C-alpha cells in the first residue's frame, strides 16, 4: 500500500478541495500521446503487461496475481478513488493500440502530496524513454494537480530507479518500510521533492 510522505504540510480545506477537483478533472491526454484512464475493458491487457517480471518485478504495491479479474478490481477501485480526488490510474497505448506503459498517481489532498509509480514495456526500457517520461510526469503532477510535495520510493536494490530519481533532483530521506497489498514489507529507499524546488530546477 502507498503511504503518504514523511514530511507533513499544513493544508487548509480550500487547498485540499482544489487538489481533489484537479484529480477528478485531469485530462490524461495533457500528460502525453496515447494516455487514457484505465477502464474495465483494459483489464486483460493490463494483466498481460504486468505478467512480465521485467515490468512488474520492482513495483511493490501492485495487486497480485496478475489476472484480468484482479486487474478489473484494481481499475474499479482506482476509478472510485479518482472520483474522491485520490488516485489516477493512467495507461499509455502506442499507435497500434498496444499497452506500453502505466502510471499510478496516489494523492493525499489533505497533505498536498502525491506519489507516482509507473513502468514501461520491457522492450522500451533502457532507451532513455523512462527517464525523460518520468521527468515529464513529475512536472505534470505538480503543475496539473497542484500538490506541493511528492514522495517516491524504490527497492534498496533497484539501482536504475534510484539513479532516475536522483537525477530528477529528489532529496534522499533515508529508508522506510513499504507494505505490499498482501501485508508483507519491503525495505525501500525514500525521496521527497517540494514543488518550489522542482520549479527552481526544471522551470
Description:
It comes from Caulobacter ginsengisoli. Residues 39-171 form the N-acetyltransferase domain. It is a single chain. This protein is α+β, with helices and mostly antiparallel strands. It has a domain at 13-148: Gcn5-related N-acetyltransferase (GNAT) (Aminopeptidase, 3-Layer(aba) Sandwich), CATH 3.40.630.30. Helices cover 37% and strands 27% of the residues. It starts with 12 loop residues before the first helix and ends with a helix. Strands 1-2-3-4-5-7-6 form a 7-stranded mixed beta sheet, sandwiched between helices. α2 (43-50) packs across α4 (68-83).
Topology:
Blueprint: H1 13-25, E1 35-37, H2 43-50, H3 53-56, H4 68-83, E2 87-93, E3 99-108, E4 113-120, H5 129-145, E5 149-155, H6 159-167, E6 171-179, E7 185-194, H7 195-202
Parallel strand pairs: 4-5
Antiparallel strand pairs: 1-2, 2-3, 3-4, 5-7, 6-7
Helix pairs in contact: 2-4
Protein name: RimJ/RimL family protein N-acetyltransferase
Pfam families: Acetyltransf_3
Domain N-acetyltransferase: 39-171
Amino acid at each position: 500500500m502507498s503511504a503518504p510522505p514523511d514530511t507533513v504540510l499544513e493544508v487548509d480545506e480550500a487547498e485540499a478541495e482544489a487538489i481533489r477537483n484537479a484529480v477528478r478533472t485531469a485530462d490524461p491526454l495533457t500528460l502525453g500521446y496515447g494516455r487514457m484512464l484505465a477502464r474495465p475493458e483494459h483489464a486483460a491487457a493490463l494483466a498481460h503487461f504486468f505478467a512480465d517480471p521485467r515490468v512488474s518485478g520492482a513495483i511493490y504495491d501492485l495487486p497480485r496475481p496478475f489476472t484480468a479479474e484482479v486487474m478489473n478490481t484494481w481499475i474499479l477501485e482506482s476509478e472510485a478513488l479518482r472520483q474522491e480526488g485520490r488516485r489516477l490510474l493512467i495507461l499509455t497505448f502506442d499507435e497500434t493500440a498496444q499497452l506500453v506503459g502505466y502510471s499510478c498517481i496516489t494523492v493525499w489532498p489533505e497533505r498536498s502530496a502525491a506519489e507516482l509509480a509507473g513502468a514501461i514495456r520491457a522492450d522500451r526500457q533502457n532507451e532513455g524513454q523512462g527517464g525523460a517520461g518520468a521527468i515529464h510526469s513529475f512536472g505534470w503532477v505538480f503543475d496539473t494537480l497542484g500538490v506541493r510535495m511528492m514522495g517516491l520510493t524504490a527497492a534498496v536494490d533497484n539501482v536504475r530507479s534510484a539513479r532516475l530519481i536522483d537525477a530528477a533532483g529528489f532529496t534522499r530521506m533515508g529508508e522506510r518500510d513499504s507494505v505490499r497489498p498482501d501485508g508483507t514489507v519491503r525495505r525501500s529507499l525514500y525521496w521527497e521533492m517540494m514543488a518550489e524546488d522542482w520549479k527552481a530546477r526544471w522551470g
